[in-house]
């Protein structure tokens, strides 16, 4: 089996101010939206590269937000974060954690987090373990869904990415950390219990 070369997309922003690591590799949470992690990956097609940005809920392991585009700029991560903020109500002071890529240190992304009352957290540059939960999801996407297929078009790849996230990962994929339940079941159970209480 030939191992595909890993291409890093993180380009650190040298002028970004200090942003602390509020997560410190603890990817657990006591409620949905309390702690979120995000990252970007590249997926190749016969028509060129596509880029996927995700926002993952540490409580339910759900992909709350995602965005697919031909460019990996600040708009890509802003779109994913906006989707997450519209999907569930984020608690005040929740945390969004990522690497130190320029998309995440951009003014537009920082402003979006402030508007949503979300605190920003970042791991160290070049230390993948500091964002291991986001890296793990991309590993699953590629090994379980993408690597054994060839996508002739970007439209075809985009359709399969959405199918994996919304049609399988969030709704049917069982997670040992969730007691072998899918993310949507854990998320629905939490909100049902809140309404009863």
From TrEMBL:
> Which Pfam family, just one, is annotated for this protein?
rve
Q: Which PROSITE patterns match?
A: INTEGRASE
List the transmembrane segments.
Answer: none
Output the superkingdom of the source species.
Answer: Bacteria
Domain Integrase catalytic: start-end pairs: 28-190
Q: Which InterPro entries match?
A: Integrase_cat-core, RNaseH-like_sf, RNaseH_sf, Transpos_IS3, Transposase_IS3/IS150/IS904
What's the protein here called? IS3 family transposase
Species in which this protein is naturally found: Amycolatopsis thermalba
Q: What is the lineage of its organism?
A: Bacteria, Bacillati, Actinomycetota, Actinomycetes, Pseudonocardiales
């Amino acid at each position: 089996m030939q191992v595909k070369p890993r291409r890093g997309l993180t380009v650190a922003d040298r002028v970004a101010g200090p942003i602390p690591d509020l997560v410190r590799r603890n990817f657990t949470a006591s409620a949905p939206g309390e702690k979120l992690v995000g990252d970007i990956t590249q997926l190749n097609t016969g028509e060129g590269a596509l880029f996927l940005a995700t926002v993952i809920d540490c409580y339910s392991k759900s992909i709350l937000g995602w965005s697919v585009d031909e460019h990996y700029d600040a708009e890509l991560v802003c779109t994913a974060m906006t989707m997450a903020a519209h999907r569930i109500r984020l608690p005040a002071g929740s945390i969004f954690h990522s690497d130190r890529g320029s998309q995440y240190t951009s003014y537009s992304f920082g402003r979006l987090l402030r508007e949503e009352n979300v605190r920003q957290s970042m791991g160290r540059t070049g230390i993948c373990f500091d964002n291991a939960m986001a890296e793990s999801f991309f590993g699953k996407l590629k090994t379980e869904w993408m690597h054994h297929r060839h996508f002739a078009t970007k439209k075809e790849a985009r359709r399969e990415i959405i199918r994996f996230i919304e049609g399988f990962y969030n709704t049917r994929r069982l997670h040992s950390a969730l007691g072998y339940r899918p993310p949507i079941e854990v998320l629905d159970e939490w909100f049902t219990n809140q309404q009863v209480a």
